[in-house]
Structures are given as structure tokens and as C-alpha cells.
Write a structure and sequence with these properties.
Elements (H helix, E strand, L loop, with lengths): L7 H7 L11 E6 L3 E7 L19 H17 L8 E13 L8 E11 L3 E10 L2 E14 L8
Antiparallel strand pairs: 1-2, 2-4, 3-6, 4-5, 5-6
Length: about 150
């Protein structure tokens, strides 16, 4: 697939997230049902830097995990013909490790690998890199749920 087409407009056609919660700027590569590489450029303009932490801004770890999950959501839903009817919720987060802080100006590359796929859930391994160095990682279990209340996900 051609990465030039995987910009934020395309991402918004897959995920329901919008500013300030959309944490993926571009998809670099996808191997369907296997893995995805995506990026987020964190700038000093991000609202959370005002309070996390004044004088020493770092990206909250929970947002790195959320970005991994969003990349995983793109991987799982981009080629699903029923994606408009589905959302992904966190089921569990396991083995989360934060090795180095992410700071304003960092370009984070998220690499997410599909470990297991079932009809109702998926297990993913997510990693966050800055300049090739591992900054965070986690295993995520996501559950498919209907996007519209009262509907059933297939």
C-alpha cells in the first residue's frame, strides 16, 4: 500500500477520534492482519504539556498507550467492510513499560503487531520509538463493540 495516502484525513475515515484525542498523524506502512507503523509528532502546543509537568514537559504514558491502541485500531479496521459499525475498547493493558520520556519535539514511531485475532477481541503488542530508541511498550487486549447502541458487531 502507498503510504502517501495514509494521512490524517484517511486516518479519520477509519477511527472516530478527533482533536485532541486523535494521536496518530500518519501511517507509514501496513501489513494487513500483521503489523502497522505510524507516527505522531508531539509539539509544545499539546494542551497536556501545560500541566504535565510545568517546567519539565513530558508526554503522559497513558497517551502513549492510547496512541498504540489507535494504531492497532487502524490495523484492525482499515480493511474491514463493517468498520463503520465497530469500535474498539480496551480490555486489558499488560506488561506496560516506560523506558524513556517523550518530550516536545519528539517524533514517535508506533509499531504495533497483531498477536491474536478473534471475532470479539484482538491482542496486540505495541512499541513506541523515538529516533530508533524504544521509549514504551505494552500488550493490549482490545474488544470489538458496536459503534451504534443497540446494534451488534459482526
Amino acid at each position: 500500500m502507498n503510504g502517501a495516502k495514509w494521512d490524517v484525513r484517511w486516518i479519520q475515515s477509519i477511527l472516530p477520534h478527533r482533536y485532541p484525542m486523535l494521536l496518530i498523524d500518519r501511517v507509514l506502512e501496513i501489513e494487513p492482519r500483521r503489523r502497522i507503523a505510524a507516527i505522531k509528532n508531539f509539539t509544545m502546543n499539546e494542551e497536556f504539556f501545560q500541566g504535565h509537568f510545568p517546567g519539565h514537559p513530558i508526554v503522559p504514558g497513558v497517551l502513549l498507550i492510547e496512541a498504540m491502541a489507535q494504531a492497532g485500531g487502524i490495523l484492525l479496521l482499515h480493511d474491514d467492510p463493517a468498520r463503520a459499525e465497530k469500535l474498539l475498547y480496551f480490555g486489558t493493558i499488560e506488561r506496560a513499560r516506560f523506558r524513556r520520556p517523550v518530550v516536545p519535539g519528539d517524533r514517535v514511531q508506533f509499531e504495533v503487531e497483531l498477536l491474536k485475532l478473534r471475532a470479539s477481541h484482538a491482542k496486540l503488542l505495541g512499541k513506541a520509538f523515538v529516533d530508533g530508541a524504544l521509549h514504551a511498550e505494552a500488550e493490549l487486549l482490545s474488544t470489538f463493540v458496536p459503534r451504534h447502541p443497540g446494534a451488534s458487531a459482526s
